[in-house]
Specification:
With about 70 residues, the chain is mostly helical. The chain contains two helices and no strands. The longest helix is centred in the middle third of the chain and has 25 residues.
Length: about 70
């Protein structure tokens, strides 16, 4: 059997955990900026789809009763 120092093993595990959490974390401000950009992108995508991809007639009534204003 191979015996190793438990303190050394724990130090290695802690080092791996510190590096992985540092890689995945965002600062508070960058998270806010990412959220604002996502909301702006959703807003412009919604406007684009309303203007360019909207159905011009009601598919259930074949356009009856729609105002063409």
């Amino acid at each position: 059997m191979k015996t190793t120092d438990p303190h050394f093993e724990l130090a290695q595990i802690r080092g791996l955990m510190d590096r992985s959490t540092r890689f995945l974390s965002l600062s508070g401000l960058s998270g806010v900026v990412a959220g604002v950009l996502a909301l702006a992108g959703a807003f412009f995508a919604h406007r684009y789809m309303d203007e360019h991809l909207a159905v011009r007639e009601d598919p259930l009534t074949y356009g009856e009763g729609l105002s063409t204003g």
